[in-house]
Design a protein that fits this description.
The chain has 155 residues and is of the alpha/beta class. The radius of gyration is 14 Å and the shape is globular. Helix 1 packs across helix 4. The chain contains 4 helices and 6 strands. InterPro entries: Flav_short, Flavdoxin-like, Flavodoxin, Flavodoxin/NO_synth, Flavoprotein-like_sf.
Length: 155
């Protein structure tokens, strides 16, 4: 059974709802999921190495910025060799702002620059997830499952 670490930050509860949809879907597929909140749980960046994959959820603050709860992880992950680690980034955003979901892109770009195998799909949900977003969440989770499978059974 594959183990997935889900780290997230949620200000209004929207990113937490997205995380729950993804988590519930993955658990229904028999994945072992560990969830930690950037705001409330101690997170050691080296911990990402103990999992088959890592999903990071972040809301976008102001006009495309990372929330303060995520900044330490964003900076400190540089000290860990994440080359080849399977990762995905998701989050809530607000289409009212010029930069839609900028924090998701900032985090994904950073992880890619550090050598992680980041899902090409960056899941951004406009405010609270609706039924269509729930489908997107499941597709995102399926892409993560496929990436884990490819990593564990290379051709």
């Amino acid at each position: 059974m594959s183990r997935i670490l889900m780290l997230y930050a949620s200000n209004t509860g929207n990113t937490e709802q997205v995380m729950e949809i993804i988590k519930d879907f993955l658990q229904s597929k028999q994945y072992d999921i560990v969830v930690k909140s950037f705001e409330f749980d101690p997170i050691d960046e080296k911990e990402v190495l103990a999992y088959d994959a890592v999903l990071i959820g972040t809301y976008t603050w102001d006009d495309g910025e990372l929330p303060y709860e995520v900044e330490d992880f964003y900076e400190d992950i540089e000290e860990v060799d994440i080359n080849g680690v399977v990762m995905g980034v998701f989050g809530s955003a607000d289409s009212f702002y010029d930069t839609y979901g900028g924090a998701v892109d900032l985090m994904a770009d950073r992880l890619e620059a550090l050598g992680a195998e980041v899902l090409s799909q960056r899941l951004k949900v406009d405010l609270e997830p609706d039924k269509e977003d729930e489908k997107s969440c499941r597709m995102f989770a399926e892409a993560m499952m496929e990436k884990i499978l490819q990593k564990s059974h290379p051709i």
